Every structure is written in structure tokens, then in C-alpha cells.
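Thanks for the sequence, V.! I ran Diguanylate cyclase right away. Repeating your input here for the record:
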Amino acid sequence: MLGGLADPVIVVDDRMVITSANAAAGRLFGLAPEHLVGRLSTDWVHEPDRVEAAERLGALLDGQTVRAATLRLVREGDGLRWVEVTGARFADAKGNVRAAISVRDIAGRIERELAGTRAVSRSHLLSQLAVEFQSVTPGGFTEVVHAALARLGDAALAAVVELHEIEPDGTTLLLRGRWAGRGTTAERAIAAARTNFADVPALRAALSGRSDLVEVRPTDQVIDEAKSLDPSLEVALAVPLRPGDQLLGLLTIGWPTAHELTNDDRDLAVSAGRVVGTALERVRAQQALLESEALFRDLFHGSSAVMYLIDPATLRLVDANQAAADFYGYSRTAMLGMDLHRLTVHSKERLAERVESLRQDGATSVIEEHQQLADGTVRHVEIHSTPMRIASREFDLAIVQDVTDQRLAHANLQRLASTDELTGALNRRRFFELVTAELAEARVTDPPGALLMLDLDHFKAINDERGHIAGDTALVAFADACRTVLRSDDRFARLGGEEFAVFLPRTGLDQALRVAESIRAAAEGSDATVSIGVAEQEPGGSLDALYARADRRLYEAKQAGRNRVVG
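Predicted structure:
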């Protein structure tokens, strides 16, 4: 079916796996068509574009309309190539969902567009380069740098020279670098060579930190090396790459004899040096991380902190230290390859969403959740999750701290701060906080709420005649009697002394009076009787007004003889 098509076309199934490809696709990908079959289609997309490619292909397979996309294709043994991708969804003879993907080579067009960017302002161009360098990796640094240098305005020749070694006498450097000619991303290498900067005073000044920018003339050794590639080169600006205190190398931008250096040229060189130097610093840090893998493993397995490594693609544990095995109650062998879902109370879907959201920032994230141990015990843990790359693979490092006891202690402190110690009812401050919030959140269509003000009758006489222990017993008995009547979402508080309050959400006056009467009757079975004032919340009314009305009715109940309800 695909053989007669001139454009490169591949067909993928609902798992995004290539099921067929024509000869043109084989030529574009750099492999025979039969060698493409069975491979995941997104594996051929440059890593920074891979998420977008997968999302677009998934949407297409789901039946959504997807516009053409411009992506970078990873060709077998031949670097990157810009392509334009379009697709159509169809069903094969067995009814299986498929997508036919047309992959058009647009490298020539992109090269023309890159050449056109020289008309873009230099400040905008440098901003573009800074963004491109954000995602560069050690393996792709040289390629990205050379494509970028070819776009630096009207520069005839540009180079990044990376510092490799400083000899003990401090004057001899071993440099290695690559040069990119104007208008092309083709790379032409200058072999690593020893350069005695004692013969180049200007460069020595730059490298020693005494200058941020120097002009290099034809008699200088670095220019002599470059002239072998471009005989017209006569002058260059050299910028030391020193984003921090450490010198990392040099960036040189050269021009032919006819070019007169301007302040704009100098500003361009300094700004470009900052961009490239920052990128080089970042890449070196990444490289150092890769080279320290053995040290990381020693620290990982020797640490007493609970640690495990997660493969974010499969949400499985790829490694766990002994501290993790001891904490969760599994052997280390049992934990290797374990589904992360077994350690958490979340569903698999919720867990996948959570891991993805944590990775989006690309930095350490701290979350709290409940995790389950091998014996079924659930613990409250704090997890520090950090995306990291080890041996060119992406992982998430999780450092887990058991905070169950701390959170229980905190919850207990919160309870003590919001409740009355004697009766267990809410205290005055917490009661009014909760009622204020409930009144603010209540919808217009909700039934109104009601406030009950309660006061134990002749409570002073109980204290005076029987003592304060008897008084405390009466308060506790009354609070317990109230709880037998109230609902779980009713708010019950001791405001002070023998005075209590109840807020009944979504309750009208008639029902509130019935509840109040039930409380009064329940109190008769304890050591004291109670007088109760009841008020219904008015639309738009304040809590202060509601409190004042209920308090007045409590006063009326006491004046009428006590042990009664007035509403």
C-alpha cells in the first residue's frame, strides 16, 4: 500500500509502534523499512520534542484533529534533521485503529530560515540562543553550539575553545575547539594543540581575569590556526568564558580585513560569551554528575535515610537502599522492580498524575502522603523527590522521612488549641472561626442556619454548695448529653463558665427549636437544667447580629423561670 508513495510515510498502531514504512521513509530515517517496523515511533524524535510528538500522535489516534508539526528527527548515524509531520487516522481491515504519518524533510527550508535570522536584532538572537541552551546535554553540546555560532550576526568565523588543561607553570594550555563558518552548521575541527600564551599577551590578560574582552590580531597564534580555514580572517574578539570564578575557555568571533570593529560588535561578543559560558558551565556540571555515579551509589547505599530510585516512565523502583527495605518491611531484592503503587494509598492513575506534575518543574519537590508498609501499616511520610540523570537515563530520587509521630503531635496540639480541655467541646475562638467560615461559604439557595445559646441554670449554687469538682462533673455530663442530640456537622462549643453555644447549619427555626428542646430534656437527666435561646440566621445578616438575637432570647428564657427554650 505504501510502496507507490513518493513521500516518506509510516503507519503506527494505537501503541504508537511502527507497523509499516515505505522506502522513502527508510531513506529519511537511515534504515531499511523492515528495520523500522516494531520500533516505537517517538524514539526517532529528538528528546526535547518527544513529549509534544507523543501528545499530538495520541490525540490523532483518539480521533482529534491535529495540525502539522515541525520536529527534529534523529537519523540513524547522521544526527538531527528538521521534518514536518502530518497524519490521518484510519482503521485497517480488522478494524484496528491506525495512523498514517507523512514525514517531510524540511532541512533545506530550516537552513534558509536560520540564515534569515541574521536580520533579527542581536538582542533577540541572543535570547533565542539562551533558550536553546537551556535543554542542551553534554552529548549534544558541541552540535548545538556550532549551529548557534553560525547564526551570530555577520561573524565571518566563530569558535568555542574549551579549556582542557593548565600546565604547572601556568602559561601553557592544552586547548581543543571547533570552528563553524558563516552561513553553515558544518563543523571543521582544529586538532587539540599546545598553545603557549606567553606569546599572546592580550589572551594572557583575558585568561588571567584582567580583561573581559580582547582583540586578537593576525600575528597571534590562535588567529594563525583559524586562517588555515579562512584566509580572509584578520581580526577577532576573544571573550573568556568565566560565568563564575572559574575560567572555562574562550569564545572568539572573527571578521575579515574589510570589517571595522564597532561597539555593537564588542557588545555582541561579550553577551554571546555570557550565554555560551553559562551553557558550558551547566553542561560541565551535568558531566560531573554523570562521572560521580559511583560516588552517588556509595552514598545511596550507605545512607541511613530511606531512599529509592524510580523510573518515571514505568513508575517502578529500579533501586532501593537497605534503609528503605528496613522501613517498608521488604527485602531489597523484593523492592527492585516493584510497582510504586504498592507503597502508596493512591490509585495508579492518581499516582501517575502526581509524579508527572512533580517532574514538570525539574527541581526538588516536597510532598506529604500516606504510604503503606509490607504489614499493612499506613505511615505519614514526607518525600523529597528530585529528577536526576544517571548513565544517560532519567530517574527520580525519592528521600523519604517518616513524619507520622510529628503529624500526630501537631494534630494533638491543634486539637488542644481549638477545644475546651474539660468538656472536649470547641473553645470560643475556634467556634466563631468555623461558624464565620460556614456563613461565608453558604449558598443563597441553602436553608438558613440557627444559633443556640445555652446557659446551665443555678450553676453557681452547684459550685458553692457542692464544690468545683461537682461543678466540673456537671459541665462534662451536660456536654455529653448535648452530643447525644447533635449531628456530626453541628458546631458545639463551651464559650466560658457554664455558657455553651450550638450552631446548626442548614437548619430553620422550627427544627432548631426541636433540637433545643431535645437538649433541654437530655440535660434534665444530668446534674443541671439549662435555659436556651434560639435565633435563625437572616439572609445577609452578620454573625454578630445572629449572636445578639440568640443571647436576648436566652435572657428571656431565664427571666421566664429557666429550664426552657425561647425562640
